[in-house]
Amino acid sequence: MENRLLLAFVLSLAVFVGWGYFLAQVQDPLPAEEQEVKTRDAQSLPSQSKGSTTSIAARSQQSQPVTPTPINPFPGEEVLIQVSAGKAHFIISNRGGILKQLQLPRFKNDSGETIDLIDNPDNLTGALALKTNDPEVTKILQNAHYEPSTTSIVLDENNIEERLTLILNHSSGLQVTRSYTFHFNDYLVEMSTQINAASMSSRNLQYQILLGPGMGGKISSQTDYIVFSGATVFANNERIENPPEDIHDTSFFKGDLKWVSFQNKYFGSALIPQQGTKAGIVLKEKEQAFVGLELESVQSSANAEYLLYAGTKELEILETQGHDLVRMIDYGWFGNKFAFLVKPLLKVLAFFYGLTGNYGWSIIFLTIIIKLLFSPLTHKSFKSMKGMQKVQPYVKIIQERNKDDRQKMNAEMLELYKKHKVNPVGGCLPMLLQIPVFIALYHALFFSIELRGAPFIGWITDLSVADPYYVYPVLMGATMFLQQRLTPSVGDPMQQKIMMFLPIVFTFLFISFPSGLVIYWTVNNMLTISQQYYIYHVAKD
Known about the structure:
Elements: H1 2-26, H2 31-44, H3 56-61, E1 80-84, E2 89-93, E3 99-108, E4 114-116, E5 130-132, H4 135-143, E6 147-148, E7 152-154, E8 161-169, E9 175-183, E10 188-196, E11 207-211, E12 230-235, E13 238-242, E14 251-253, E15 257-263, E16 267-275, E17 277-285, E18 288-295, E19 297-298, E20 301-312, H5 315-321, H6 332-337, H7 339-356, H8 359-373, H9 375-401, H10 406-419, H11 429-447, H12 471-486, H13 493-510, H14 515-538
Helix pairs in contact: 1-13, 7-8, 7-11, 8-14, 9-10, 9-14, 12-13, 12-14
């Protein structure tokens, strides 16, 4: 019974992991090849200095025959406003009031550079750009130079809040005021937009504020095939993912809209409606996805307030911010079913990190705590296995004697178990009770940004990626093999042979798993072996 349960659990786990990988393959990961081409094209463009504003059109003219210079419909010089807010650094252009860079100094990419959540190599519509249903007005909103209230903001403990205001008074009669309120060490930015277009009231203008493309950063991980990256909407208590290939026309999300966002495994950015907004939107521009908010408009004028969240998907931070931002974290189908266990496990992990300053040791201490909590159940399970092993010779005799009378065989088996005080399901139930905890911890370690870039000891410099030398997967396989050798053999010979191959299968399966998860399983195996040895070779009961 125990072998069958363990075999079923292992096969379920293999199907669970394999299904995620299979889905990644059938979803046609074409953008990876296209992105390489786009990156090469972007790198081939002439570089520009930090303060320059040379446009793509101007650069392309260098290779074209000399023609008369057209009149610039939006005269003025671009000003880049620098905002240092502790955990985040913003660069905002007064040309359209868009966000050009959003850096997170705490985090580095694979090249060792500070992570920038904005990835717009094709110079599409900028992040936080305004758009209308009139192309002429859209061009003004996105290209005119706004007058900034300041060109630099530096926040610290003594200056925890400051506002940036951008004002446009266009010759067409269009008047726009955009404001950003930044807070020190806070990923949340308060925003407002006031648009007065009295001279255009007959046009019935409808306004949108857009987020994208790539407002989550071009950041990859080894487990991206499991996690959705891209445009996501949370409306009417439902998390809606929008793969680019499924976006055709503009989609509107009304009702109880909490946020629209771009995200990947570890980072995300979201627009959170407050007042003056009527719908969330998802659309596509040149094969790139955008999300945004549609503003309420009266006679071509609008007045709206909303929030921008742009930062990490750390559980504690998202819960503190509210607005259901915690639903940006998706632990997968299995993980979401046991999310009520995932969150406390992450909090315990953070507690031990506060004591040790190392997530590797925090995982080990968390594993020990879990093992101690389930120690009575595990003890009962092993004792039941030990009892089943003792009566196994009698079981075979009864089976052989009553092979043609199954009813009589079952009756004699029940009598045998009652006589020797053995419960055949006694070893199964404790194991079943531990499966939800294992799944929850699996997802807690698999999807947590806390492990990203977190070192352990020696060659393990990042607990979120696989062991580069395969030491821990091999050690895990060895401990699993030793654990099997200590477990009483119950079941037919074919089942026993299959079970002997499981350590090899698990070793190859765990080679690609994050090292933090492999460390958990290895330590758990070691603790189980110690408990098995005590029950089978030391305890007299």
